[in-house]
Here is the input.
Amino acid sequence: MPEQIGIVVVHGVMPHPRYEIQDECAGSLTGALNADPQWKKLGCWEYSVVNPVDPSVLSDLDPRPTISRVRLQGDNPVAPANTYFDVIEAYWSPLDKGKATFARVAGWLLQTIFVPLNTTARYMASPAKTFCDFGLIGGGIVLVVAFLALALLMAVKSLAQLTHTSESQSFATLIKTLTTFDFSGFPDESMLVKFALAVAGAYLIVQAVKGLIGFFQQLQTQKKIPAQMWDRLRFIVIVAVIGAALFVPMGWAYKGTGLLLVVAALAFEGGRTIAQSFFVNFFGDVQIYTTRDENVDYNAMRDKILELVTTTIVRVSSDDANGGKGYDKVFILAHSLGATVTLDAIMRYHQFIEQAPPVAKDLLVRAFRRIRALVTFGCPLEKTKYFTDVQNPSPSLALDQWRSDAYGPLFTDQPAELLASNAAASAMFWANYWYFADAVANEMESYRSFVPAGANAALGHHLRRTMHDLGPGKKPLGRPLCRNERGHKWWSLPDVIPHGDYLLDDWFWHSSVDPDPKKSHLGVLDIVARTGASPAPAAFGGRTWQQAPPSGPGYAVGPTYEPATPGQAAKFHDFRP
Here is the structure.
C-alpha cells in the first residue's frame, strides 16, 4: 500500500535562510531514490513545493511554511496516488542570530573549556578524536591571529613605500589614523586619496576572488547551470576590473604597493571570516543554547528555539497533519546543534504526554509513536553535554544519571524496530552519522541506559540498585541507545571540515553489505524509505538488518546491559552505593 511519510529536518548552527536545508534534504532524497534499484522500478522521482492544509490556520490566521514533497513524476502533486515524502524544516535560525559577540563567546570558551574546575563534566571521545577536534579549534585561533598580523604587516609595508618612510613610522601613522581619524601623518591629501583608492581596489579584488570561489563551489552541486549564474559571473568580472583599475595605477607608480595591499586585504578578510563564521556564528549558537541559567538573557532565546522545534515535531506527528489525514510514519533528521535541540524537543514532547490527562493520552501516544526514527548527523551532543555540565557543576552527575534513565525507554539502536507497526513499536530507532574529520561531530558513546525500551523511566533507580556483577572483572554497562555510522570524508577547501557534506554524500543515503556484520553500513534511505512500501517489506531492500539481541541475564523485556570491565563501566555510570 502507498505510504505517506513525513520528514522533519532540523538545521544546525550558522545563519541559514528559510527552506535551505528543507530543499537540500528533499533534493538529496530525490537523487537517492532515483539511484536506488528498488525505488527506481516505480518510476522517476522529483520534488515540488506544496502548501499544507492545516485546520488551525483559520483560528490563528498564521499561514504555515510550505512543504517540499518528493513524489513520482507524473503523480498528482496535491494528492499523490503513490508513496510520497513530505520534507518539513524546523526553522529556528533567526531566533538567536546577531545576539552573540566575539568578546562574550571568548569569555564563555575560557570559562567552559579552560577553567571547568569540575570533575563530573566528561568529554566522551577517543584521544585521537579529542586531539583532532581541539587541534582544529586551536588552529583556527592561531590562523585568525596570523591572518590579522599579516594584514597589518602588509598594510604597513605598502604605506611605507607610498610615503617613503620607515616601517615603524608607517605603523605609528596607520594606528594613529585608525584610532583617532587623524590624517596628519600623510604628506599631502593626494597621497591620502591614492592610498584610500588603492585600499578600496584591493578590497574589491578580494571580494571578486571570494565570489569566484563560491561560484565554482556551487557549480559542483549543479547538474544544470542556471542562467542567473552567468549573470553572477559577469558581475564578479566587473567588480574585479573596477578593483584592478583602482589599485593598478598606484602599484605601477609605486612598485609593489598594490600587490601588498591585495595581500593585506586577503589576509584581513580571511581572519575576519574565520573569527566571525567559526567563533561567533558557530560557538555563539552553542553558547546561547547550552545556557540553562534562567537568570541569563540567553536562556529565553534557548526556550524559544526549543519551543519552535517541539511545536514543529508535534504538529507533523499529529492526526491533523497532512490535510487532516496524518502521516503513516514520521522521521526526524537533525544536523549539528539541531540534534541537541531535537533530543531536548523529543524529551519535552514525551514529558508533555506523561503529564497529560487520561482523556487525551491515547491520542498523544498514537501521535508520538508515528515518530519511528531519529537520524542525527554532524551531531555535537557529546560536546554540548560537556558544556552544559560545566555550567552546572553541582547537580551534573545526578542530571546525567536522570537523562540516561529518561532516554532509555524512548530510543534503541536496533534497526529491526523499524519493521514493527506504529502500535507495536517499543522505542524510536536512533542512528548517528559522523565523520572523524568533522570537528563538530562525535560518535555517541555516553548515551546508554539500563532502562528497557518502552519501560517507565522511574524504574531506572531500582534497576541500577539490583545490577550485579557478571563474573570476575566484569561490570554491567547500559545498552547503547544509538547506532553509530562513521563516514570517511576528510578536510577539503573551501569549508575545510566536512560538516555540511552529509546530505550530499552518497554514503549517507545508501547502505552497503559486508560479510562481517560490524562492517555493514545502514544508509538513511533504508531508514526513511523501507517502511512497508519496499518490494521486500520483511527486510531492507532484501537485506536483513536485524541484529541478535545481547545474551545473558536480564529482564522480562530483554537484557538492558552489556558486560564491561570496571574501568569501562565507570566511564559511563557511577557505581558507588
Remarks:
- The first helix runs from residue 20 to 35.
